């Protein structure tokens, strides 16, 4: 071991599970970051007996092995988690109550932000707590830990036990925490499940031919350390429950379908994979839901082209798929990547969705009726650009967490609104084709179709496009007319090049008024001069996409009776080809028409 431990203080030693191994790998690779830091800040209104609260936390520590764990990876054959008999967490106490409200609030925010960024040393207990007094009867309780220790469900367990213990202590009662299975029992059950699924070929087939595509290939915004920002969106949940009951699907399936369809539209990708989290606790062990630890797994969910299906068909098919997939949830994300031949550092997805069924939130807080407690803020850096967390509380709540060096506030706001809208569309119009769903709000649709496109301008009907262009060139000869490939062309230059093109077409290529001239060019500097040059001869131009296959180009040439084709390095039999790669110099030496 890289540090001697008192053997008398060691209770248990475990090899890390696959989830923990992945977190440790990323933690060690990102030597300066705060990856997998999780922070919960609570607002406590009333008289808080600080010493008693700390004693309550120590009792909860004594009852939960995860709150007494450290980690080692050097000088051992495999990374291990060591559960200690005694391992007091770092607890800070600050008193800002002497400052005015504004200054105190600023100091609290500064502390919270710095605490979020402070990296944990995993060789020491990666848990810390701060109690900040902001007024005579107002406190902020900040609980932070590294995700390698425990999951979100465990946070709810800890809060319930912590405030229950505190309530009993302040009432001079003996602390009574419900008995639970040992951490060791759950770990062994999880390990058996992992071994049973280790050789499964399901995931190879499930992800066969999937081309890994990032929805957020470029980073922008603030420099490191970047912020994890949050936005929250709400929707009524009554229709969600009714829909799930009527169509025999789970509520989670409906949300997964909405999330996947939305990612398809944003990425313009018919085949999308995103991450989902699942619980890896062993339901066979009674009391498994009372044990703190990291018992979650992240596994991929794939949604392929579904535009021809109705929304209900998409949801129903996904529900059937999940019934199969959910039998294989113990196969770790790292194991899946290994099956596919991916590196540990590679990712299958950059979007994740978490369905939270644990009671962390207003439901749990309200159950602690002895105290007036509110959630001030929740923070977690999962190392994934976009994470949607869904809470099935009194309302359906969508919480987006996003990295601000990758995702803008505008994108997050737009994405959240559209996720709510698409979910509501599934519930309201299940027989609508998925491809026909509009994610625009009424205001956005009106702006795009009416206001944005209100470009009507009066022009004299007796003037041609060419006349209008020449009039503009006469008025503003030195103004920029075209910008292409970093090069600017003024109206005077464009008028001159177009005129020389017209002269070349008439004198060299023999173009006559009324004839058709094909133009097969990319968006380049000779495209507009070619169009104006053709019009100046009295001929008409026929645009041909350079990406068309040869037989399609030949068909257009033959059916339109073209005699001349302006292009670059293209061959076409039976027609005069103006290859600009070779004749541009001759064109520019022509006298203007």
Explain what you see:
The chain is an alpha/beta fold and 593 residues long. The protein has helices spanning 18-29, 50-63, 101-117, 152-170, 183-197, 202-206, 238-247, 251-267, 311-325, 333-339, 362-367, 409-428, 442-451, 465-475, 491-507, 527-536, 550-560, 580-588; strands spanning 10-15, 37-45, 69-72, 80-84, 90-95, 127-135, 138-146, 228-235, 272-279, 296-303, 351-356, 372-380, 386-392, 396-403, 480-484, 487-490, 516-519, 540-543, 564-567, 576-579. Helix content is 38%, strand content 21%. The longest helix has 20 residues, at 409-428. The protein starts with 9 loop residues before the first strand and ends in a 5-residue tail after the last helix. The model has no long low-confidence stretch (mean pLDDT 87).
Radius of gyration: 33 Å
Overall mean pLDDT: 87
Please identify the structural class as seen in this structure.
Answer: alpha/beta
Largest sheet: 6 strands, mixed
Can you list the strand order of the major beta sheet? 8-14-13-11-9-10
User: How many helices?
Assistant: 18
Helix content: 25-40%
The proportion of strand residues reads: 15-25%
- End-to-end C-alpha gap: 87 Å
Strand tally is: 20
Q: Which stretches of 5+ consecutive residues score pLDDT under 50?
A: none
What best-fitting shape do the alpha-carbon axes yield? elongated
């Amino acid at each position: 071991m890289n540090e001697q431990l008192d053997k008398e203080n060691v209770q248990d030693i475990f090899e890390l599970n696959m989830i923990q191994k992945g977190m440790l790998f990323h933690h060690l690779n990102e030597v300066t970051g705060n990856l997998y830091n999780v922070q919960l800040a609570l607002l406590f209104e009333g008289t808080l007996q600080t010493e008693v609260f700390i004693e309550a936390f120590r009792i909860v520590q004594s009852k939960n092995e995860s709150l007494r764990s450290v980690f080692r990876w050097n000088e051992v054959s495999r990374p291990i988690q060591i559960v200690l008999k005694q391992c007091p967490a770092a607890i800070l106490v600050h008193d800002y109550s002497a400052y005015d409200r504004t200054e105190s609030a600023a100091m609290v925010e500064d502390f919270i932000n710095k605490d979020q960024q402070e990296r944990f040393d995993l060789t020491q207990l990666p848990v810390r707590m701060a109690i900040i007094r902001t007024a005579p009867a107002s406190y902020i309780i900040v609980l932070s830990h590294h995700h390698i220790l425990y999951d979100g469900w465990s946070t709810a367990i800890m809060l319930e036990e912590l405030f229950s213990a505190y309530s009993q202590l302040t009432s001079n009662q003996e602390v009574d925490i419900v008995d639970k299975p040992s951490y060791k029992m759950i770990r062994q059950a999880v390990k058996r499940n992992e071994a049973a699924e280790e050789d499964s070929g399901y995931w190879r087939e499930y992800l066969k031919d999937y081309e890994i595509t990032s929805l957020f290939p470029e980073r922008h915004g603030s420099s490191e350390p970047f912020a994890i920002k949050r936005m929250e969106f709400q929707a009524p949940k009554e229709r969600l429950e009714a829909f799930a009951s009527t169509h025999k699907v789970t509520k989670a399936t409906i949300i997964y379908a909405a999330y996947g369809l939305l990612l398809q539209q944003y990425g313009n990708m018919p085949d999308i994979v995103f991450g989902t989290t699942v619980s890896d606790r062993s339901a066979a062990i009674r009391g498994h839901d009372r044990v703190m630890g990291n018992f979650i797994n992240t596994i991929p969910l794939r949604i392929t082209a579904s535009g021809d299906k109705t929304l209900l068909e998409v949801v129903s098919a996904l529900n059937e798929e999940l019934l199969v997939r959910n039998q294989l949830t113990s196969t770790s994300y790292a194991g899946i990547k290994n099956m596919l031949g991916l590196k540990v550092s590679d990712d299958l997805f950059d979007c994740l969705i978490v369905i939270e069924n644990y009671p962390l939130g207003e439901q749990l807080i309200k159950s602690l009726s002895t105290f007036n407690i509110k959630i001030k803020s929740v923070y977690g850096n999962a190392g994934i650009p976009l994470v949607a967390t869904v809470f099935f509380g009194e309302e359906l709540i969508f919480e987006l967490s996003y990295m601000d060096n990758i995702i803008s506030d505008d994108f997050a706001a737009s994405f959240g609104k559209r996720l709510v809208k698409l979910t509501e569309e599934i519930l309201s119009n299940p027989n609508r084709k998925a491809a026909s769903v509009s994610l625009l709000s009424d205001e956005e649709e009106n702006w795009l179709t009416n206001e944005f496109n209100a470009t009507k301008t009066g022009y004299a009907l007796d003037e041609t496009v060419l006349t209008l262009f020449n009039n503009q060139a006469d008025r503003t000869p030195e103004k920029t007319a075209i910008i292409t490939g970093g090069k600017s062309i003024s109206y005077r230059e464009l008028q001159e090049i177009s005129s020389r093109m017209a002269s070349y077409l008439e004198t060299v290529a023999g173009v006559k008024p009324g004839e058709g001239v094909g133009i097969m060019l990319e968006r380049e500097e000779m495209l507009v001069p070619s169009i104006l040059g053709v019009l100046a001869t009295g001929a008409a131009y026929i645009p041909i996409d350079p990406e068309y296959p040869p037989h399609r180009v030949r068909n257009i040439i033959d059916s339109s009776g073209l005699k001349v084709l302006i292009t670059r390095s293209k061959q076409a039999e039976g027609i005069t080809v103006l290859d600009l790669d070779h004749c541009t110099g001759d064109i520019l030496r022509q006298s203007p028409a």
